[in-house]
Amino acid sequence: QVQLVESGGGLVQAGGSLRLSCAASGSIFSIEAMGWYRQAPGKQRELVALISSSSSTDYADSVKGRFTISRDNAKNTVSLQMNNLKPEDTAVYYCNADIVRYYSTRYESYWGQGTQVTVSS
After folding, report:
1. DSSP H or E stretch at residue 94
2. Which of 121, 98, 112 is nearest to 29 (CA)?
3. Within the chain, which residues score under 50 in pLDDT?
4. Least CB-packed of 37, 77, 100, 115 within 10 Å?
5. pLDDT of residue 105
6. From CA 84, how far away is CA 63, in angstroms rounded?
7. Nearest residue to 21 (alpha-carbon basis) of 75, 98, 102, 88
8. What are the CA-CA distances from residue 22 to residues 36, 42, 87, 120, 121 (Å)?
């Protein structure tokens, strides 16, 4: 089995910062892309940031220049540093990873349980 466990959400004032972390554990042979998504009440889940196994990155336009995604391949972790937070960043943030398990030949997509980020104005 594979698990993704997130941490670091919370309540912050506008202009503040938070750092989210996600650790993958279990029967992991390799991890390809890792990313963060978010879902606000009444809205669809949307991509926030992606990072490949070679650490190339991609960001939603709404967070460019404010958020930074990074990963530690040795520890199977991915982090999201969020600066200059805005009320519209309020959402549940989910970690995602494309993982090949031992004795498997294909990637499967795994999700964390989500962590709440609330930005007050």
Report:
1. strand 91-101
2. 98
3. none
4. 100
5. 86
6. 10
7. 75
8. 9, 25, 23, 24, 27
